[in-house]
Write a structure and sequence with these properties.
The complex is a heterodimer of chains A (117) and B (112). Chain A is mainly β and 117 residues long. Chain A contains no helices and 13 strands. In chain A, strands 2, 4, 5, 6, 9, 12 and 13 form a seven-stranded mixed β-sheet that branches. In chain A, strands 1-3-8-7 form a four-stranded antiparallel β-sheet, with no helix packed on it. In chain A, a hairpin with a 5-residue loop joins strand 4 (31-37) and strand 5 (43-50). The chains are: A mainly beta (117), B mainly beta (112).
Chain lengths: 117, 112
């Protein structure tokens, strides 16, 4: 099966501009997650979709970040306007439905490296 | 709260050396524990996991044992190879949501 696909793989934008990251999960995976790793720090959870619904967005840093998953398929993460501290690697992951209350193992994408200058 | 602490890198070893990367955690519930690996230019891959105390996860010669008494999940490999050069992340998951909490990552470089 195809893996989780993210694009672009790299993006360099100026402060104040808008960037949209895209994630295509594995077909049939209801759960989709976004994570972010800022340079030298932990990978941090941003949000979790179950199909098209936001299950948990407690990790979204502020209202400059907007995530969508129309139709429960691919997801986009928009940053508007971008700030310098938004630079980092944005990972997407997907998994199948919960089994016995626990989500099955994740499959991660390769990430999008965002640089805001 | 929930958190993961892993040893700072980078770690540089010679081929066939023994590897240990320490990982300790704090969790409000009963977590599942994971090691993920990121090879250069690739995404995060699950290396191994353990879901209950005293479980040992193993894969590709790597092992880690879930130690509830010491809240640890140290990663070990008896003989590393150049191809093991990567960044290793310890992580935990608590509850049914499946959200992962990661450590900062440890970069391993193995020299021939």
């Amino acid at each position: 099966e195809a893996g989780v696909t993210q694009f672009p793989s790299h993006s360099v934008i100026e402060k104040g501009q808008t960037v949209t990251l895209r994630c295509d999960p594995i077909s049939g995976h209801d759960n989709l997650y976004w994570y972010r790793r800022v340079m030298g720090k932990e990978i941090k959870f941003l949000l979790h979709f179950v199909k098209e619904s936001k299950q948990d967005e407690s990790g979204m840093p502020n209202n400059r970040f907007l995530a969508e998953r129309t139709g429960g398929t691919y997801s986009t993460l928009k940053v508007q306007p971008a700030e310098l501290e938004d630079s980092g690697v944005y990972f997407c992951a997907s998994s199948q439905e919960r089994i016995q209350g626990r989500v099955r193992g994740y499959t991660f994408g390769s990430g999008t490296r965002l640089t805001v200058v | 709260g929930n958190s993961v602490t892993q040893m700072e890198g980078p770690v540089t070893l010679s081929e066939e050396a023994f590897l240990t990367i320490n990982c300790t955690y704090t969790a409000t519930g009963y977590p599942s524990l994971f090691w993920y690996v990121q090879y250069p230019g690739e995404g995060l891959q699950l290396l191994l996991k353990a879901t209950k105390a005293d479980d040992k996860g193993s894969n590709k010669g790597f092992e880690a044992t879930y130690r509830k008494e010491t809240t640890s999940f140290h990663l070990e490999k008896g003989s590393v190879q150049v191809s093991d050069s990567a960044v290793y992340f310890c992580a935990l998951s608590v509850g049914s949501q499946g959200n992962l909490i990661f450590g900062k990552g440890t970069k391993l470089s193995v020299k021939p």
